[in-house]
Every structure is written in C-alpha cells, then in structure tokens.
Hints:
The complex is a heterodimer.
Chain A: H1 5-16, H2 18-52, E1 59-65, E2 68-70, E3 72-73, H3 76-81, E4 87-98, E5 105-111, H4 116-125, H5 128-136, E6 139-142, H6 144-152, E7 158-162, E8 168-176, H7 182-185, E9 188-192, H8 193-200, E10 206-207, E11 209-213, H9 220-230, E12 234-238, H10 239-277, H11 282-292, H12 297-329, H13 336-340, H14 357-383, H15 387-391
Parallel strand pairs in A: 5-9, 6-8
Antiparallel strand pairs in A: 1-2, 1-11, 1-12, 3-10, 4-5, 4-11, 6-9, 7-8
Chain B: H1 3-25, H2 30-40
Amino acid sequence: MLNSPFFSFLTLLIFKQKTKHIGVVVISVMIIFLLSSILFISSSLQQTLQKNLKNQPDIIVSSLKAGRSVDTPIEWIDKIVEIDGVESVTPRVYGRYFFTPNENSFWIIGVDFFDEQSNQNLKSLIDQVELREFFSTPSMIVGDGVGEFMRGHFYSDSFSFRLPDGGFKEVKIAKELLSSTNLIANDMIVMPQELAREIFGMDDEVVTDIAFNIPNSSEWDNIITKLHLLFYDIRVVDKREMIKSYRGLYNYKGGLFLVLYLVTIATFMLILYQRYSMVYSSDRRDIGILRATGWSIKDILKLKFYETLIITMVSFVMGVVLAYGYIFVLDAPLVLEIFLGGANLANSVELVPTIEFGLLGSIFLIFAIPLFGSVLIPVWRIATTPPKEAML
Amino acid sequence: MIREFLVLSTLLVVLVGAMVWHYILYSGDSGAIDDISCLTTMTTPSLSVAFYEPRELYGDRHEVYPSIPTISRVGFVYVK
C-alpha cells in the first residue's frame, strides 16, 4: 500500500500544500499539548498519592466544640483501645506554625520517635551518627521547601520558634529531606512530640487527633457507630473519605480543563468547517479538478480521509510527546502551581511518569472525530456538486 | 511515498521511542516519600495554600464550597 500511486499522490499533495496544513497542525499540537499536560499531571499526582495511602491510618478521630476543631483529650485513647477490632492507636500532634502572621507557614508534625516503627523509619531517613546528635539537642527534620525558605531568611543551622507565652525556642535543623519527598513533605517539619507540644503550647493531656487502624474493613462502619456512641462531639474521618477527596481534588481541576478544551476544540472545528465550505476556497477548486479528471466521490473522500488521518496522527503524536517532555522531563514549570498552589512555600515536585492509555485514547477520539467531521462533511458536499460548478 | 514523508514518519517514531525509553527507564526515589509518610502517618499532599485555606484534605471544610474558610481554620497565629 505504501508504494501505491494513491499513497504517493497523497503524501505529495500534503507536502505540496504544506503551508495550508501547518496552521492546522500547529493549533492541533497546542490543543493536544495543553490537554495532555494537565491530564498527565493530574494522573501522576493521583497515582503517587494513592500509592502512599497505605501509610494513612484507617480512622482519624478528633474532638469538636460548637462545630470547631479543638484539642482531643488523650484519655480517649484508653476507651478506643477497648473497642474490639481496633489496633495501632496513635496520638498525633501537628499543626501550622506561621512564620509571619497570615503569611508563610510550616506544617509541624510531632512524632513519638520511641515507637518502634517510627524509629525504623527515622533510621532510614537519617544515618546513625546524625541520630545520636538528633536526640541530644532539640532538633528537627525539615522539608525541602522549609529548608530553602529558612536559608533565605538566614536560618541555616537552627530556627527560633516563638512560643505562645512569648518566649523563644531554638531548634537545630538536623536534616533536610530530599526533594523527592516534596509532594507530601515540602512544608513539613518533623520533630519529637514533646517539642511540638511546647511550640504549640499544648499540655500533656491533649493531642491534635487520634489515629488507628481497623484490619477488617467490614467492621469500619460498626466501629464508627461505636465511637459516636462513646463520645458526643467528635469528627471521624475514614480512609474511604480520604481516597474520595484525593480523587475529587485533581479530577475537579482536570475536569475544568477538559471543559475549556471542549470549548476550544469546538471553535477550532467550526473554523475548519468554515474553511472547507467557503465558496471560493482552493480546496473546492482542487476537488472540482479531481472530479473532472475522473475521480469518483468515494476516491475523493478516501483521499481527504487519509490526508486528515495523517494530519491528526502527526498532531497527536507531537502534542503528546511534547506534553510528556514538559511534564516529566522539565517537571512542569508554571502549570504545576495550578495543582499544588503557590500561596505559601514554593514547591517543585518531581513527577513520576504515568501514562494512562485509556485517557490518551479518549483524547485522540475526542480530537479526531470532530476533526474528521469538519473536513469530510464539506468535502462530501463539494464532491457531490458537478465539477464545473465546483471549479467556479 | 515521498522522501519528506519518510523523514517525518521517522522523526515521529524517534519521538515516541524517546518517550517510551524515558518511561521504562525512569527510576524515581519512591523510598524516601514512603518513609516520611510512614513516619508521620500523613499522606496529604503538600499544598502551598494561603493562611485561610485548609492544609489537610480532611477536617474543617465547607462541604459545598470547599474554598470558604471556616472559623477554626487558622491554627496558630500570633497576635501582633
């Protein structure tokens, strides 16, 4: 087929009229590039977060007062432990520390490093020598974004936290996390739980919330009911809600772009349709000439079909490859802010390449079908008119 | 088939090949992110949000308009 006269004529025609096609290809590449970029980021972030969900506790319980979150009494743990089917009950201390009021903030997490599992994870994050030093003085591990921000404000070795009683607490920066953890730890500060309590002004009787696991997922609803019977003002968040909110967060933004894309593509297709159906267009004359030299309507439609197919394929491949390079090689400068925000510390995330073939197929179909329609319908209308009339 | 078309096809094949090559050979460091999420039991993305927006994806959030700040949102602000 590749050596057939028809194919030679088709490719010759495309390159002969390349100025006509370049405009269509450039606009198509831009549309596919923008849409693919957004969907690549969205699916990559979602996949990375979903992978880490295994480390998320199944249930989080916190105390409410008049509908507002307040510190949770630590004595609740004793009651929760007594519920059958509950395990790994962990009190958590965390919150936001504002560097300047209403501006940049850090996400402080207090960890019980004497817990066996936490100790193992800490060991894999910092080596043995640093570990001894870490426990000998008030120390913290900071995320990449926090480290950069602190260096920018001349806190390269330690940082002085302002305490609620007006005093200051100097904490040594023991380690800066790798930039590969930026997706969840860019603004994070990890420190011993007692130190976090001191900075937040929390006493030993309260925690921010209590997290625990329920190995048998069919017991989740039953245990949630028991919790509501045990305590009056509580908020219970389970892992299912977390998964839903992760999906919702990025599907919403991806969907927004899909709507914009549909508007753009509809406009583009209307322009193309208009171009092909113009009374004095060169396409009209060309079709007339072909009809006059003996080409049937079917042959003309076949020629235009393959011509559009080649243009679509070239645009699609170029758009997708450019989007892939922009997102996964250059790490999506500018566009990433749409998904991660830019109101607090600057965040640069290394995105894990994710290709959803179903998604790419959908993009291709959503793009190709209107394109074929906007070219073939006017071509068919011209081809069915007498050649003499078409060439006028 | 004309030569220009052959060149264009080859170029596209090379582009797709480079993309597939990068995709297959990518070896990101997922261990560190796993360690930190396991250590802190926090998996919410590090959203660079303004002071009135929630940092975690659960908690005090308006169900219908998630961007509306709630009273208890500002966790730790010092009085000027």
